Amino acid sequence: MAEEIRGQATKYAVVTGANKGIGFEICRQLASQGVVVVLTARNETRGVEAVEKLKGLIGLAKENVVFQQLDVMDPSTIASLAEFIKIQFGRIDILVNNAGIGGVTADADALRPKQESTGEKIQEVIEQYLRDNKENTLQAKGWPSLMSAYILSKAAMNTYSRVMAKKYPSIQINCICPGFVKTDMTYNSGILSIEQGAESPVMLALQPDAGPSGFFFVRKKVSSSL
């Protein structure tokens, strides 16, 4: 199958958390541009259904979009995905880390860095937050009073992206806010459609080799803040 796909497209993409919402639409837009897409999701049934729906929407051949089960918090599924990509394609050109959860409480395992290379300063800040949260001293220590875990996790992710962009200059690594989009996570209260929300991540995913790296985008514009 890998050789047949290589004859049809030159780029291979993995999109996490892609069985619905913005992730699903990113898959649709990338596949419509001729990219071979690996749609991933935690739930296998929902993921397979999403792939079939996607194929029906844009009339793709079965090789142009495939499903692989992935839970980004489960190392075994990450390893399985990596092995699948190695065997089927030999590489990936695009990785869209779309998977996420909503919530306002701090979870130590979710916030704690999973690799030694996250950067000492980022890890220090996160560890301090976790200690203060455990001791119920967040407000006294000056942390944000509303959605502090969410804010910190986003700031850490954006900063880590910049660290990685400097460490791997041959790879374009960026963070992006797609805007306030009508999805299940926003209880469909957003002002942008899912199609509009996916446009900016797809724009970055399809940028030329000399494109920007190490930046935080708000939709299609570079932001001066984290």
TrEMBL record:
GO terms for molecular function: oxidoreductase activity. It holds the Pfam family adh_short. Belongs to the short-chain dehydrogenases/reductases (SDR) family. The gene is LOC107783835. InterPro entries: NAD(P)-bd_dom_sf, SDR_fam. This is (+)-neomenthol dehydrogenase-like. Keywords: NADP, Oxidoreductase. It comes from the Eukaryota.
